[in-house]
Amino acid sequence: MSIMVAFLCLSLSSLLALVTAGGVKNCHPKCRCEVESYGLFDSFSITKVDCSGLGPDATPIPIPLDTSHLDLSHNSISYITDSMLSGPGYTTLVSLDLSKNLISRVSSKAFNKLRYLETLDLSQNVLENLSDGCFSGLPLTEVDLSDNKFREFDLNVFMTRGQETPISVDLSNNLLSTISSNHHLHAPYIKSLLLAGNQLRTVPRLAGIPLQYLSLDGNLIHSIDEGAFEELTDLVYLSLSGLPELPVIHPNSFRGLRNLQVLDLSNNVHLKALSPDVFNGLSALQELNLSKSVATPLPVTMFNHMPSIKSATLGPNMHCWKTHKQGQFHRQIGQAKANDILTCDVPGIIL
Known about the structure:
By secondary structure, the protein is mostly beta strands. The chain has a domain at 26-77 and 90-103 and 117-132 and 139-147. It is built from one helix and 19 strands. The longest helix has 22 residues, at 2-23. This is Tsukushin. Residues 1-21 form the signal peptide. Pfam families: LRR_8. Keywords: Leucine-rich repeat, Repeat, Signal. It comes from Hemibagrus guttatus.
């Protein structure tokens, strides 16, 4: 009996080992492959493959046919050729991580076979340019190009298949002094654009791009002029924090931003004063951050341009918020009227 039990246990162990091996069939011996099953009775599965840290001589790497996520980071890759990402298994990729390499060139057809690719990470490389059409035909939703060497960038490179899905683009921490978009072409469907930590000296003109989120933090912008953002009517979040050379924001700078809900103007140490007319047109604004900016007191009239404001941070120890205070019961109307009260946690400030 004990021999039979031992035989059954051994058979079961062998069977489990066989099933496990089958789940990561064709996994490169130096890669780590993980199979995730889902759906009714686990009828569907996807494979995540981690081939990071193998070195530049490892590519192209054979991967399982049903691979959806592939990590090729930390491999000292310098050039993405036409054939590197075209083998079996690559055509099903949804996510590709090429970050933390030494990539300086990407062939114009390098991503042609990746027809399902949604997320692409090329951050922390040494890219200075991209070929026109290198993303053509890809259903991208996220592209990370942060921490590269771009000095100028044409956003029309993100013109992708059908434009059904909006794209989030990260170009922060490059050397950008120029951002362009060809107004004669259909604008790329970019919803989020991170340009923080670059060398932009003026607010870039992004006419036609349906941006909802824009960050220009830490750039060298020296002035924000009237109507600087009026073409970005869909914008919901705008961050202009930590601009080391910004002394002035002109009246009507935010004109046209009728959907803006959050405005961050914090950490602008050279911004000494703000006219109430700066905030003209911000009818939907709910959150304003001016901490470590504007040394002089702000007049209460500034809030006349922001009827929807709910929270305002005006300094390291000055925070204001709007509350609803129930008014006196009105006999004729038959109900009490609520009043909006702006309350601040520091007494004596001008509000």
